[in-house]
Amino acid sequence: MAAHGQSPTTSLTEASRSRIIRSVFTALLLDILAFTTILPLFPRLLHAYRAKDNSTALHWFIASVHSFKSYFTGQSQVVGEADTVLVGGLLGSLFSFLQGLSAPWIGRLSDRYGRRPVFLVCMLGNIVSSVIWLFSHRFEYFLLARIIGGLSEGNVQLSHAIISDVTSSAQRSRGMAMVGIAFAIGFTVGPPTGAYFAGIQRDLSEWLGLGLSEAQVFAPYPWAALFTLALLLIETVYIYRSIPETILTRPPPDTAESATASTNTPLPTHMSLEQAQTNIRTLKYIHFLYLFVFAGMEFTLPFLTFDKFHFSHMEQGQFLGLIGIVSTILQGGVVRRLAHRWGEKFFVTLGMTSCALGFFSLATWAHPREGGTWGLYFAAICLAVTSATVVNCMTSLVSLCCTAVDPTGQPLDLTDRKGQILGDFRSMGQLGRALGPIVACSLYWLKGSAWAYTAGSLYISTIAGFFYLSVRPPRSAKAKTH
């Protein structure tokens, strides 16, 4: 049901809708910058915690990873660099797993009480998480901060829900692409920004005049944590001032004008309730399967560039930055303009096919011999296409199923559960993102990079075929297929 059982009644002007989408984009960009600040610091943070205390939790994590590796390799080795890095991966998986647990509940609460209050509560949780991180001079406190942050991170799905509230089906993909652009910019700018603040040598405790050593009060690299906290505080104030409640907003009607004169735009989108429910269920499972392998293979890229190509931190940053920049350009210049005209299904299929080709390139053409880096950078371009298309266009498909009408022109009984459905969809993806790196790194350890990326390419190809054959997007008789 809609908030407090009410039906959508509020109409917004086109200028108001555009302003809300811009506000969502700005808030989400701040959120992703805050989230990505910590990413390059994980190995150094864990090294610092190992050096400064005998944390039972940290040593348990490291011992578990080392025992797992020793069991499969049959060798008892000294705990090394890879063990510490993989603990960072486990913490990242824990964060995604907790997001997967909380996402359905965040969606249901936003349907019942509204997007805005739930958004602000999530921001409160993120702020508490950052405060604990700032003062986490022991690893247990840092772990608590990650747990609270994972359970509170509902900003992405709430952004999707708000955009769905205020856009027509013809505008949906353009709005959803803004989320992808925010991600691409955030993941390009956030990690080097975090590395910069981690490099500040001034003692924060001394700067604040606390009279204690920094190590007694704050986490390692506290300036990065302080910067993250500042971003989240700014984001919270911005959300409070700029993003209104949208759950009772009536989307604009689909018209020829809103379809930007596309000859293959459905006016409006039609689908039976049974087919919509089947699509949503299928897309949830595909989201899990896709992110299970994509996130896992993506996590191994720093290992590949370090082990095989001996990239420095700067070279790794440039490589990942290339993916982010190309993805931003594609989302802003191609996907946002053409997804609804050519069909979200077309772009999802294109992105998955590009992903399979990218993994195949990493398996066969990317090698450290002279001239072999072209295969690595070709794969980077392919993965940028994937990042620009698959998740955002699948999210648009789920949202379109929620707001489609049946053949008689009556709205389906899904519109008032849009937050819940988008939350369930995101939950499945986050669970895949949590489990994928563990399996992918195991394959990378045991079988080598060529075997792992070949398996990933075949896996993604299978998922692409299943998606193309099983998902029928809401389209009228006017829609062209690709």
Automatic annotation (TrEMBL):
PROSITE patterns: MFS. It comes from the Eukaryota. GO terms for cellular component: membrane. InterPro entries: MFS, MFS_dom, MFS_trans_sf. It is found in: Membrane. Keywords: Membrane, Transmembrane, Transmembrane helix, Transport. Pfam families: MFS_1 (PF07690). Signal peptide: none annotated. The keyword Iron does not apply. Its main location: membrane. Residues 20-473 form the Major facilitator superfamily (MFS) profile domain. It is a multi-pass membrane protein. The keyword Transmembrane applies. The chain crosses the membrane at residues 20-42, 84-106, 118-135, 175-198, 218-240, 288-306, 318-339, 346-365, 451-471. Gene3D superfamilies: MFS general substrate transporter like domains. SUPFAM superfamilies: MFS general substrate transporter. One of its GO terms (molecular function) is transmembrane transporter activity. This is Major facilitator superfamily domain-containing protein.
